[in-house]
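We were asked to recover a plausible sequence for a given structure. The inputs and outputs are reproduced exactly as logged, with field labels preserved.

PROBLEM: sequence recovery
POSITIONS: 687
GIVEN STRUCTURE:
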């Protein structure tokens, strides 16, 4: 059992702060908090709490064959706060889709989430048929990218669209063989498996906000800069119970993934075989539980990724369950009695898988929890790590071959840093061994390191933060940064089209409103200008002492009309005198006038054009016809020019129009002289 220790003053102060914080007031119990808070003191800041926007609560659910791992957090940055954790063992034979699994899911999430609004829940699709692959397409217009990626991925990944869900994530432009292409991370997930997980959460009363694949959960850490010093190309080795996974990230993006069958179950089997060999339970035949070897092969086998060429870049999760750990043996190891000559030792106590698992956990928690009668009593963590070395070395070689394939065959940037996730990420010895053998700086992928977590069950070992890494990565999921099998590129395209239509509608409405506002301002300005002019005229009228009443204006208008009629009558009476005087004044020297005959007829109606296309208005117009008789005397050679000059003068006069010469003939005068007699007709219009 773990040694009991009294809480330190710092721990008591931290617990007091949690109890008095805003999370406690809302009925939430915070089981982990970052080293610093918004105000840098770890205490609640009233100003920050009053004016800051409340952070949304997220829950990540990691589903495996053995247990459900859940993490509840607030905030999705480096300052996130862990509100609760839960680990629920999954009984043997209970699988997603069964009523027992739904009941377990409902019970676990109800205890974790508690009353109040439902958080945003993300889970990962568990299936051996999931497939991830980085594909590239030629540069095409943006509207053609979706179809180009789909058909390229369908050709390379060979999937049936009716049985799987296909989605991809654009990665922008990439350089490939000297040309610029468009990259995309494409993935498929079985439609049936996704539907089962989605239905289980809905039946449990906790509908999913998103469903993604496990490698994308770790991608969230790199994209949100949660992992310190993760620049450039970084590889993460996730060691699971039945298989391992190597993920390679570049600038926060998942670029490559390979499944490795060496896992913790193989390591536990190696420990059990080593203990059985050391205790001489039975002479063991050579066996390897860490990897499935092809027929005819013995010893350690390494998969050479370069041998298959660059076409073997598909990331297919073909997960074959490892054989049962019972009744198997290991090759001679450091505890092989054959190394020491002598008589065969007597048979000792049987080593069970539970014993092997407890000894295996010694590299995590130490050996203090082993009983005196335990088969592994007296072993140290270094000795247990020596038992694991054959399996761990095979795992390292698989990692090295994958990194070589990624660097040399695919032509990507070399990996400069290695992280380890999963339960073994909490083992200092295992992480150091992986880094030393791979020749790379190696560190655990444990964003929850340094946080106070829930106490373990009575008598159980403490729970390391690396156990929650994958569930925590799911809690960091968001539709903007994480691929979502429930919301694929097709749904995104539909939403984007609707959003663009809505944006254009809003822009058009804004333009119309702006135009109306401009017209309104202009009309208001014009009205104010006219009002000022009216006030100015009214002031001038008041200064002149006049009034603007209708009766006075009517009287003045009548007086003006009477005066105009009188002037017209006077002009009509003296019209003949004025016309004769004008005709005499225009006559040049040598042109004499004799008789003037005037004929004044009644007014003649004439049409006057009207504005706006209306019917022309008719007005009465009086006219007079004049006949002028005269004689041109002097030099006979100038008769025609003198008469023409007189006619031009008459035409240019505003009193006459329609000037025409009716008669012009030579006539003998007294004394032997000669003259040109003429008759001119013209009209006098009414002014």
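RECOVERED SEQUENCE:
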């Amino acid at each position: 059992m773990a040694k009991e220790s009294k809480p330190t003053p710092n721990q008591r102060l931290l617990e007091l702060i949690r109890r008095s914080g805003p999370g406690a007031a809302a009925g939430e119990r915070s089981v982990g908090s970052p080293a610093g808070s918004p105000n840098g003191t770890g205490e609640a800041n009233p100003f920050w709490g009053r004016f800051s926007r409340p952070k949304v609560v997220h829950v990540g659910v990691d589903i495996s064959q053995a247990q459900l791992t859940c993490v509840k957090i607030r905030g999705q940055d480096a300052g996130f706060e862990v509100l609760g954790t839960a680990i629920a063992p999954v009984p043997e034979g209970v699988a997603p889709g069964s009523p027992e699994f739904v009941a377990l899911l409902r019970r676990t999430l109800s205890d974790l989430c508690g009353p109040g609004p439902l958080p945003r829940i993300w889970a990962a699709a568990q299936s051996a048929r999931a497939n991830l692959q980085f594909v590239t397409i030629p540069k095409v217009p943006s509207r053609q990218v979706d179809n180009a990626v789909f058909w390229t991925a369908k050709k390379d990944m060979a999937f049936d669209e009716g049985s799987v869900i296909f989605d991809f994530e654009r990665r922008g432009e990439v350089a490939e063989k000297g040309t610029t292409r468009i990259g995309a991370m494409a993935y498929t997930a079985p439609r049936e498996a996704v539907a089962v997980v989605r239905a289980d959460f809905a039946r449990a009363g906790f509908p999913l906000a998103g469903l993604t694949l496990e490698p994308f959960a770790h991608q969230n850490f790199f994209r949100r800069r949660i992992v310190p010093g993760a620049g450039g190309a970084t590889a993460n080795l996730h060691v699971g119970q039945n298989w391992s996974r190597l993920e390679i990230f570049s600038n926060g993006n998942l670029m490559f993934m390979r499944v490795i069958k060496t896992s913790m179950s193989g390591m536990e089997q190696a420990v059990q075989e080593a203990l059985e060999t050391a205790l001489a339970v039975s002479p063991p035949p050579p066996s390897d539980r860490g990897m499935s070897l092809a027929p005819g092969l013995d010893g350690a086998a390494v998969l050479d990724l370069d041998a298959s060429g660059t076409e073997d870049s598909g990331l297919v999760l073909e997960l074959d369950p490892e054989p049962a750990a019972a009744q198997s043996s290991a090759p001679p190891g450091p505890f092989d009695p054959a190394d020491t000559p002598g008589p065969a030792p007597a048979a000792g106590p049987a080593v069970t898988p539970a014993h092997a698992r407890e000894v295996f956990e010694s590299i995590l928690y130490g050996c203090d929890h082993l009983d005196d009668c335990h088969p592994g009593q007296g072993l140290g963590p270094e000795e247990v790590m020596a038992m694991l070395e054959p399996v761990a070395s095979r795992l390292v070689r698989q990692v090295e071959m994958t990194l070589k394939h990624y660097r040399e065959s695919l032509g990507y940037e070399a990996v400069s840093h290695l992280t380890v996730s999963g339960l073994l990420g909490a083992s200092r010895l295992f992480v150091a061994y992986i880094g030393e053998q791979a020749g790379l700086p190696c560190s655990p992928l444990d964003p929850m390191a340094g946080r106070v977590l829930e106490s373990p069950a009575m008598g159980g070992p403490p729970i390391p933060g690396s156990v929650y890494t994958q569930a925590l990565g799911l809690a960091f999921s968001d539709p903007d940064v994480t691929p979502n099998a429930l919301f694929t590129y097709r749904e995104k395209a539909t939403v984007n089209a609707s959003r663009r239509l809505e944006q254009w509608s809003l822009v058009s409405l804004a333009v119309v409103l702006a135009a109306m506002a401009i017209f309104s301002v202009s009309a208001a300005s014009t009205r104010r200008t006219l009002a000022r002019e009216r006030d100015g005229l009214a002031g001038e009228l008041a200064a002149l002492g006049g009034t603007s009443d209708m009766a006075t204006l009517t009287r003045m208008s009548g007086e003006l009309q009477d005066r105009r009629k009188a002037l017209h009558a006077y002009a009509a009476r003296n019209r003949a005198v004025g016309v004769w005087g004008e005709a005499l004044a225009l006559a040049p020297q040598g042109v004499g006038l004799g008789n003037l005959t005037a004929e004044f007829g009644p007014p003649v109606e004439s049409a006057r054009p009207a504005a706006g296309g209306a019917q022309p208005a008719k007005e009465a117009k009086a006219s007079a016809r004049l006949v002028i008789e005269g004689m041109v005397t002097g030099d006979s050679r100038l008769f025609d020019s003198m008469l023409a000059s007189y006619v031009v003068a008459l035409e240019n006069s505003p009193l006459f129009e329609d000037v025409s010469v009716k008669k012009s003939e030579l006539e003998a005068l007294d004394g032997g002289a000669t003259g040109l007699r003429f008759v001119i007709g013209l009209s006098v219009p009414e002014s």
